[in-house]
């Protein structure tokens, strides 16, 4: 099992390049960053994490710009989205962005995907919340086609394009891992249908984690990779994940200025070497 962090990169916290260097220097394996293009002023969708939407949600960097900044100053750190809101992104542009990130990082990109919770936000992108899961599936499948086919085409309910050339192709073969976020009743269907791994949020529908992982791997007929997102930096949480068969733990890292972030990373690093 290896360790990374999941966080929101904003204009009020540590910059992504400095964070990437700090993580690699301390032995962390991965950096995953969140995405919100914007937050509508009139909010109706409840935030799954509680009553008040935290300030960091309003100020996130574009994830691929942030991850590129971290990638070019590191050599081993894997860089991923946690999660990319695919239902708010053009799949052809998304395929090019992730492939470009995989190229500049020399094969270290990971695409964490999900459908999101903020219905007002997705409506601003022209997405109907009622069909967002079907849209997510088609866009991910289209991205995979663009990554792996020289003359890619896709014809679906929501995504439709005739044969196209789309380069660069990713470094990783056949493509960067696709980690499917969530823990709802149909999440495993999506993991098995178009994903390479499962990325639930710690404590949100993961109360029977070992049994869930065993079920997923049995249904898939393979050892599906599991990344635990937003894990509290506590020994008992680490041991729970280890015993359940989790492959990677991502500690939830608050968005803070550089000095506070570096001090916090020093404390967390003590857990992963103990």
TrEMBL record:
InterPro entries: Lucif-like_OxRdtase_Rv2161c, Luciferase-like_dom, Luciferase-like_sf, SsuD_RutA_monooxygenase. Gene3D superfamilies: Luciferase-like domain (3.20.20.30). GO terms for molecular function: alkanesulfonate monooxygenase activity. Keywords: Flavoprotein, FMN, Monooxygenase, Oxidoreductase. It holds the Pfam family Bac_luciferase. GO terms for biological process: alkanesulfonate catabolic process. Residues 18-230 form the Luciferase-like domain. This is Putative F420-dependent oxidoreductase. It comes from Thermomonospora cellulosilytica.
């Amino acid at each position: 099992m290896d360790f990374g962090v999941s966080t929101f990169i904003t204009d009020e916290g540590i910059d992504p390049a400095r964070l990437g260097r700090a993580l690699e220097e301390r032995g962390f394996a991965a950096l995953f960053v969140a995405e919100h293009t914007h937050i509508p002023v009139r909010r109706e969708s409840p935030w799954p994490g509680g009553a008040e939407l935290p300030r960091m949600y309003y100020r996130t960097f574009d994830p691929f710009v942030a991850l590129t900044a971290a990638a070019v100053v590191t050599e081993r750190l894997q860089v991923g989205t946690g999660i990319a809101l695919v239902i708010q992104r053009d799949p052809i542009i998304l395929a090019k962005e992730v492939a470009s990130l995989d190229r500049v990082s020399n094969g270290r990109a990971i695409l964490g995907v999900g459908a999101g919770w903020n219905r007002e936000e997705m409506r601003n992108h022209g997405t109907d919340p009622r069909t967002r899961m079907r849209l997510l599936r088609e866009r991910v499948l289209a991205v995979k086609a663009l990554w792996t086919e020289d003359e890619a085409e896709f014809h679906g309910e929501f995504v439709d394009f005739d044969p196209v050339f789309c380069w660069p192709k990713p470094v990783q073969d056949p493509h960067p891992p696709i980690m499917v976020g969530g823990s709802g009743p149909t999440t495993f269907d999506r993991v098995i249908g178009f994903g390479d791994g499962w990325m639930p949020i710690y404590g949100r529908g993961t109360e029977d984690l070992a049994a869930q992982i065993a079920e997923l791997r049995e249904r898939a007929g393979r050892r599906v990779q599991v990344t635990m997102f937003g894990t509290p930096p506590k020994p008992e949480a680490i041991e729970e994940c280890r015993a359940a068969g989790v492959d990677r733990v991502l500690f939830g890292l608050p968005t803070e200025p550089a000095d506070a972030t570096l001090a916090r990373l020093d404390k967390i690093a003590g857990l992963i070497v103990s």
